[in-house]
Amino acid sequence: MADVAVVGGGPAGLSAAQFAAKNDLDTVVFDTDETWMHKAHLFNYPGVRSMDGMTFVDIAQKQAEARGADLHEGEEVTAVEQDGDGFAVTTADGEYEADYVVLATGGNRDLAEDLGCEFTDEDVVDVNLDMETSVDGVYATGAMGRPEKWQAAIAVGDGAAAVLDILSKEKGEYYHDFDMPSDVPEL
């Protein structure tokens, strides 16, 4: 049983995983390594002068795992269904339970459609500013909710916005994740 199941291991999914795991939510990430970052090179990402997209993903994976996320590489999610107050996440390797689901599958919106999430006239998942879909507890990030704006920086922000909303729900009040230098553990 996980607090948060993240489907997708690109910038949005790994950002969501880092924020969730860092804040003590039991987090599982399912990654099929189909991220668009295979074709990307970051020149316009804040704090990065120049970095290959897969180097970025490798660093983000290590950060998520270091913060406690459980990364399931090569494990494809075949279905997500509502199950009581949470969700059943099915893969070829098994079934998992989660309280929240963050979908970060790029332009593939099949799982959102199967869950009954509403779509816009532009045929993208209809999300609010916190990336929550019409299905309570399901979030769609990155290209899932944007017809054109597919950028790593935007996707990372979407993943963070989704989990900040989850953390706010869990804590019963608005939660922001702002670290001070004294908060940083030795890495």
UniProtKB/TrEMBL annotation:
Presence of keyword Oxidoreductase: yes
Statement: the UniProt record of this protein carries the keyword Coiled coil: no
One Gene Ontology molecular-function label: oxidoreductase activity
InterPro entries: FAD/NAD-bd_sf, FAD/NAD-binding_dom, Ferredoxin-NADP_redctase_2
Domain FAD/NAD(P)-binding residue range list: 3-38, 54-156
Keywords: Flavoprotein, Oxidoreductase
SUPFAM superfamilies: FAD/NAD(P)-binding domain
Pfam families membership: Pyr_redox_2
PANTHER family in the cross-refs: THIOREDOXIN REDUCTASE 1-RELATED-RELATED
Record-given protein name: FAD-dependent oxidoreductase
